[in-house]
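Title: Prediction job returns without error message
Component: structure pipeline
Severity: low
Priority: P3
Assignee: unassigned

Description:
Job completed but the reporter wants confirmation the result is attached to the right record. Sequence as submitted:
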Amino acid sequence: MGFFAGSENQSRTDLAGAQLARQATASLAGLLAGLGKTRSDLAKAMGVSPGRVSQIMSGDANLTVRTLAAAAEALGASVEITFRPCPQPAHGPGGHSDGSGDPSAARDSDLTSHR
């Protein structure tokens, strides 16, 4: 284990957290659009300021499960979170990982909102 192994793990965790926040906010934005609602509508339904909704939707905020649940509840939706192992790269003679795999894996790993 190298000297910077701890910071490397933290960096990967930060990147994964940022990606998860982007997925959540993209899904929330898609739900809002699908319902024909605005961020102001969401703020009123959640009982928060429009500025707070902007923070949530920016993807930069450290979103909590409670915040996601509150947004879903305000919109009459649910949030689904699924944990699954990451695909492992193929090893061996001529084996390589080209990033392809089960197309449902990416779809299933997204945070999805259901009405």
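Comment from assignee: result matches the submitted record. The two ends are 46 Å apart (CA to CA).
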